[in-house]
Specification:
Layout lengths: L1 E3 L2 E3 L1 E2 L2 H5 L11 E6 L4 E6 L2 H11 L6 H10 L2 H10 L2 H5 L6 H28 L4 H11 L4 H9 L6 H14 L1
Parallel strand pairs: 3-5
Antiparallel strand pairs: 1-2, 4-5
Helix pairs in contact: 2-3, 4-6, 7-8, 7-9, 8-9
Length: 177
C-alpha cells in the first residue's frame, strides 16, 4: 500500500521491487503499470524502468499474463532473464515458478528480437540522454509518449531556460512537423 496525496493505492510488485522499498513512512518513487480488466483495475509497481519495460514486453507474449510476468520478475533479474532468452536457455526459464516448457519456448521465440532491440535502443538513449533541465524536459516528453530518439530530436530544436519553456518549445516544434 502506497499513499499518494492522501489516497492509498494497493500495488502488486515483484519481489525485487519489494526488497528495495524503504522503511514504512519513508518516501518512495515507483514506476507503475495499470492493467484494466472486466472485474478490476490492478496497479503494478516497479523499482526500475528495465523491470517495467520487461513486464510490458512479457504481457505481449501469448499465454503470459500479469501473474506469470510478476513471477518471472520475482524469480530473475531483468538482465538475467534477457540473457537466458538471448541464449535460448529454456531450462533456466522453466526453473521460474509458473513457467513451463511451452511458455519458456514461447518467451524465447517471441522476445528474443524484442529484447535485443530494446537493449540497443536503451544504449542509444543513454549515450544521447540530456542532463539538468534538459533531462527533466526529456523525461516529460517520454512520459507524453514520445520515443527516446524522437524526444532527443525535439529537444535539439527547442530553446528555453526552464524545463517548461523547453517542453513548450519542443511540442511546438512537433506540431509544426
Amino acid at each position: 500500500m502506497v499513499e499518494v496525496g492522501g489516497v492509498g493505492y494497493e500495488l502488486e510488485a515483484p519481489m525485487s521491487t519489494f526488497y528495495g522499498l524503504p522503511a514504512v513512512g519513508q518516501p518512495v518513487k515507483l514506476l507503475t503499470h495499470l492493467v484494466v480488466r472486466e472485474d478490476a483495475h490492478v496497479l503494478y509497481a516497479f523499482g526500475t524502468a528495465a523491470e517495467r519495460q520487461l513486464f510490458r514486453n512479457l504481457l505481449k507474449v501469448s499465454g503470459v499474463g500479469p501473474r506469470i510476468a510478476l513471477a518471472i520478475l520475482s524469480g530473475s533479474t531483468a538482465e538475467a532473464f534477457a540473457a537466458s532468452v538471448q541464449a535460448g536457455d529454456a531450462a533456466t526459464l522453466t526453473r521460474i515458478p509458473g513457467v513451463g516448457r511451452k511458455i519458456a519456448e514461447r518467451l524465447i521465440v517471441e522476445l528474443r528480437d524484442r529484447l535485443a532491440a530494446a537493449a540497443a535502443e536503451s544504449q542509444a538513449a543513454a549515450v544521447s540522454a540530456p542532463v539538468g533541465v534538459a533531462a527533466e524536459a526529456y523525461s516529460a516528453l517520454i512520459a507524453l509518449g514520445y520515443k527516446p530518439n524522437e524526444a532527443t530530436r525535439l529537444l535539439k530544436g527547442a530553446s528555453g531556460g526552464s524545463t517548461e519553456e523547453l517542453i513548450r518549445s519542443a511540442l511546438q516544434g512537433a506540431a509544426r512537423e
